[in-house]
Amino acid sequence: MASLKTKAYVLKDAKIPNKELFYSNTFKEWVADERFYHDLIYFTTVMYNPNDGLVYCGLTAYDNDLLWTFDPETKEFRSCGYQKVGERFDVKIHRSLQLAKDGMIYGATACLHDLDQRTEAPGGKLFRYDPKTNKIEILAIPAPHDYIQTIALDDDRGILYGFTYPVWKLFRYDIASNQTKDFGYVGTGPHIPAIDDQGCVWGTWKDMYRKRDNLLRYDPEADEVTYFDYGLPLMSPVDIGTVDSMLNGGDGYLYIGTSAGALCRLDPKTAEVAYLGKPDPELRMPGLILGKNGLLYCGTGTEGNTKIFAYDRESTKFIELGRVYDPEINDSSFILHHITEADNGTIYTGETDNPRRSGYLWECEVEM
């Protein structure tokens, strides 16, 4: 019988006195409050690096200390020193760490400030981190005054793609030439994009009349964006088809988790979308990875009722592994914002948006 053994690891642990404060405080207020400036953090990106055996953690952190590592052997965290190159509006690495074949790590910075500070904020950074030298290099600000919610790396072509915020744009950045192409306003964006076997990047654009998210594809060979007039299956009258997670399954298909908690399959050759199922009655599927055993691991849920499922593509069955809950502290992950798998099959998941406290890093040992 499948199961999950879970343990939480705490980097910093600010306590929020009440939910009203969490949902009403502005960026300016969080930054000005010493109770939260250094210690109110969330794990918004996690990426296992097989080259050094560390889990790289992109944080939400008001003091700009955004990039850390976690050692699964020693259980210790270490800062990579992003503060040395960052500025005060760089407060999040949001679904934006990518490992290149040469061992370099590419990342991007996101924001939390409001529109009244947009013009004074320079814009989100694409950066490159060398784990061997601990050097962080700022590469570009692809869209001045806008920050970067998510990126995807085409390692073969040396291209980084990204979606910006608060003005939703799609951009292409060519690493070798240091050139950016801005494709303009698309109205929305995926929680994370994916690149198919032909090198096309897939994301979303906003249908302003029907007010739902539709699929888009950019083909680098044709240098052309295709805007499809449909998106993902809708699970309810309020569902707008938001892409919560997306990956290349290595079998010719892209797999997509929706904000309503459904798993879908996209055929890039035909642009057809197939509904595979909804494993959990809860909303969200922000965690989606291809396991080393060929299973898809799906992180679902909100409000502390978060779980991890496996999806077997051969049997087309979901396997419930368990709730992300640590009995030693009697607490659970509020939202599984991102998941990654270590060489030994252990899953690490980052927690975000907890209205009571800082987010934790959750270690989940899978038993099948």
Tell me roughly what share of residues is in helical segments: under 10%
Quaternary status:
single chain
The end-to-end span amounts to 6 Å
The value of Rg in angstroms is 19 Å
Beta-sheet strand percentage? over 45%
Widest β-sheet, arrangement of strands: 1-30-29-28
Average of the residue pLDDT scores: 97
Low-confidence stretches: none
Number of helices: 2
Q: Shape from CA axes?
A: globular
Q: How would you classify the helix and strand content by structural class? A: mainly beta
Largest sheet: 4 strands, antiparallel
Question: Number of DSSP strands?
Answer: 30
Description:
It contains two helices and 30 strands. It is mainly β and 368 residues long. The strands form eight sheets. It has a four-stranded antiparallel β-sheet, with no helix packed on it. The chain has a four-stranded antiparallel β-sheet with strand order 2-3-4-5, with no helix packed on it.
What does the secondary structure layout of this molecule look like, with pairings?
Elements: E1 3-9, H1 19-24, H2 27-32, E2 41-49, E3 54-61, E4 67-71, E5 76-79, E6 97-99, E7 105-108, E8 126-130, E9 135-140, E10 147-154, E11 159-165, E12 169-174, E13 179-185, E14 194-195, E15 201-207, E16 212-219, E17 224-227, E18 243-248, E19 254-258, E20 263-267, E21 272-277, E22 287-290, E23 296-300, E24 307-312, E25 317-323, E26 325-326, E27 331-332, E28 336-341, E29 347-351, E30 361-367
Antiparallel strand pairs: 1-30, 2-3, 3-4, 4-5, 6-7, 7-8, 8-9, 10-11, 11-12, 12-13, 14-15, 15-16, 16-17, 18-19, 19-20, 20-21, 22-23, 23-24, 24-25, 26-27, 28-29, 29-30
